[in-house]
Design a protein that fits this description.
The protein is an alpha/beta fold. It contains six helices and eleven strands.
C-alpha cells in the first residue's frame, strides 16, 4: 500500500513522526526520479535538528533531507515531500561512471576532469550534468528524495570513517524505501548512497542496505 501524503506533502504513517523544518525547504519538487541515502555526521537526531533550525554565519539557509532516521530506528519527516531540499550537492557524471558516454560527451567530460582544483572541477562537472535531463544524469536535488541516517564519522580529518548503520535503522530504512518507491513509482535501481552519485566521503552510508 502506498503512503498517504496530504495536500502539503506531509506523510500520515504510524512509523513516522512529523517534525518539519521550513528552513531546509527550497522550491517545488516536481517528479521524483530517485532516492538518496545519507549519514548525518552527527551523533544524534537533535544535532541535525539544531542545524536545520538556524541560518549559517553568512545568513544562508541550512541543508537537509526529507527524512531522518535515528539510531533507534525512529523515522522523522523533516521536510515536505512536495518541496526541494539541498541534500545531493555536486553530481558526478553518470555517463562516465557507467561508461556509457557518447564520444562527444566523453571528450567533454575528460576536458572537465582536467580542470585544476577539486572544487572548481566538481562545480564544472555538476554544471554540465545539470544541463541534462534525467535519466541522462543522476537524480539531483530537483528530483530526489533524501533520507538521512544518524551516524557520525570518526577519525583524523580527511580520513574520517562513518560508523556502521544500526539494525534498527536498517529495518526502518528498508520499510521507508519500499513505501517511497511504491508511492512515487521509483525504480529500485534509482536508489543510491550519496557517494555513488555525489562527491562525498566514500564510507558514508556504506553499511546501509535495502
Amino acid at each position: 500500500m502506498s503512503l498517504y501524503i496530504d495536500r502539503v506533502g506531509i506523510v500520515d504513517a504510524e512509523r513516522i513522526k512529523v517534525k518539519i523544518f521550513p528552513l531546509i525547504e527550497r522550491g517545488t519538487l516536481g517528479a521524483v526520479n530517485g532516492i538518496v541515502v545519507h549519514q548525518t555526521g552527527g551523533s544524534t537526531a537533535m544535532s541535525s535538528f539544531n542545524s536545520y533550525s538556524k541560518m549559517d554565519r553568512n545568513g544562508g539557509a541550512p541543508n537537509g533531507a526529507h527524512f531522518l532516521i535515528e539510531k533507534d530506528g525512529q523515522i522523522y519527516q523533516t521536510a515536505s515531500l512536495f518541496r526541494v531540499t539541498n541534500h545531493v550537492g555536486f553530481l558526478q557524471s553518470r555517463c562516465v561512471i557507467t561508461q556509457k558516454c557518447t564520444p562527444t560527451e566523453l571528450k567533454r567530460s575528460m576536458a572537465l576532469e582536467r580542470i585544476k582544483g577539486n572544487n572548481a572541477k566538481a562545480r564544472a562537472v555538476h554544471s554540465n550534468e545539470e544541463r541534462k535531463k534525467w535519466p541522462e544524469r543522476y537524480p539531483s536535488n530537483a528530483d530526489a528524495i533524501g533520507i538521512e541516517l544518524v551516524g557520525e564519522a570518526q577519525g583524523k580529518e580527511g580520513k574520517e570513517v562513518f560508523l556502521p548503520v544500526t539494525a534498527q535503522q536498517t529495518s526502518s530504512l528498508q520499510w521507508l524505501i519500499r513505501e517511497l518507491v511504491e508511492t512515487f513509482n521509483v525504480s529500485m535501481q534509482e536508489v543510491y548512497r550519496h557517494p555513488s552519485i555525489g562527491r562525498k566521503n566514500e564510507s558514508e552510508a556504506r553499511t546501509a542496505t535495502w
